[in-house]
Each structure stands twice: as C-alpha cells, then as structure tokens.
Amino acid sequence: MIGGFLFSSDYTYMAESQVRLPLLHVEPLSLSYRQREITPVLKKGPQTQLLTLRNEMEADFTLGDQLRLITIGGYHRTAFEDRAGSLDGYVVGAGLGSPIRRELPRLEWFVVAGGYPARTRGPAPGVARL
User: Fold this and answer.
1) What distance lies between CA 92 and its chain's CA centroid?
2) Which of 27, 69, 71, 127 could lock onto 123 through a cystine, CB 3.0 to 4.6 A?
3) pLDDT digit string, tens, across residues 79-125
4) How far apart are alpha carbons 33 and 57 in whole angstroms?
C-alpha cells in the first residue's frame, strides 16, 4: 500500500508492506508469522527511513463455530524521526475473534489487547556511545 492521505505534510508518501505466512493449520490450532513495515519518504533530508517494523507469531485456537482464542508474541521496532535512536521491545497479547475458515466469511472480526513486557531505547545505527 502506498499513500499519504492522513500523514504529515513532511512526507511525500508512505509505503507499507505486510507479509502473513501461515505455518500450520490443523483443526483446532493454527500458527502464522506476520511481518509489517512502514517506511515514509520525506520531502526534505534523507529520502527514506524505516519507521516501524513488526515481527509477530500468532497462534489461534478455535473454540467453536463462532469463536477463536488468539495469542500473539513478537518484536516491534520504531525509529525516531526527529532525533537519532529507536524504541523497540517485545510484545505479547491475547484476544478473541471469528474462526479462521478455508472459505472467506462475510464478516470477520477480532479484538486483541496486550502490552510490552520489555522495552529498550537504542541509539541510532552508527552512533558511538562515549
């Protein structure tokens, strides 16, 4: 997806990519890997920088015809735009949703909540700590 409708006037546009890789689907369990990147293209200064990177594993357990249990664990990294450095951390979450089916349903829903049990604030790549 490429766009810039809701973003700051500092950007020419934003590029977003997402890959979802199903790893296992044996009823009632499914496992998948997801990677998502958001990269802005700035009007001034360096033209592109990776702003956000998310790597997540998701495990789903179907509880019935209408409900599934969702668990997520992963790693998120966000680079600062206005100064050198980044914020990164591990994330865990859980929730409920409609079951995953082979055919596309008319309505698919899910709700997931979680937090960051471990966060770090890192320097920019190539910046020496003195």
Assistant:
1) 12
2) 127
3) 766 566 778 889 999 999 998 777 777 788 889 999 888 777 765 55
4) 5
